[in-house]
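Standup notes, structure subgroup. Blocker cleared on the S-adenosylmethionine input:
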Amino acid sequence: MSFWPMMASLPLLPTVVLGLGRHRARAAQLCYVVLTWMLRLLRGQVCAARTHSFVFSHCTHGNAKSVLEAFDVYAETHASITLGPQIGQAVNEMVKNIRPSRVLELGMHCGYASVLLLRLLPADGKLLTVEQDPAVADLGEEIILVAGFKHKQFQVLTGSSGQIIPTLHCLLEVDPGTSSTFNLVLMDHDPQQYLLDLQNLEKEGLLCPLGCSIIAIIRDQGVLKALKEMVQARPECYIIKSLNNDMLELFYQKSAQ
Ligand SMILES: C[S@@+](CC[C@H](N)C(=O)[O-])C[C@H]1O[C@@H](n2cnc3c(N)ncnc32)[C@H](O)[C@@H]1O
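Run returned:
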């Protein structure tokens, strides 16, 4: 069915649902999915400024959970590239098991995953988050502050992962008494950069030699293949801890040799 006839038939949906008798609940659910999908289509491209303004005005300031909920409500009816509730919940569980204290996020966007990560860090934990688009980086930083986090807990680094990774050592070393390596890296930026960035993080000695988890959000199957091949070629350093349609979790440990 083409777009406009489909739109014209939308007002008939409630009648169809009511006529479906015992399948009403499933039909209503289906209608909801169709309607939200249509709204997302109508509202077009992902827009960081709109995401920010919705979250800013629909959350309780100072309450990180409410910030995440506002992002989720927005994503139900607007185009969105945030992690979202399903992947968010899975990342949440993984991070609870990993219990990291130094986290690097590549691809901050409006700060959904940053807020999720910061909620799980210990009091002395730190998140460094990288965003290549300066305007988006400012919006994301404001959302993290709105969620109630302080600058001593996180730092937004504006630039591409390729530019920022070589500078990370200096940034970590300015925190006296803290580790200069990461024990968790979350990759949700340009999938074409995942492998190269991971190799550079390792080359720079930024992955904790005793163990570092890498969570890669999979938005491209070709990249998943490349990461799996790298792990197969380096079994002394990398293992796959878990894999599903949306994410790959790797564990890195420096080999003894
Ligand atoms: C999928 S979004 C990240 C969503 C975010 N994880 C969240 O849950 O809200 C990807 C973001 O990565 C940024 N990005 C893409 N390539 C990048 C790179 N090489 N370095 C840094 N940021 C990058 C984009 O500008 C975009 O804001």
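Discussed briefly. The first strand starts at residue 102 and ends at 106.
Next: hand off to the docking folks.
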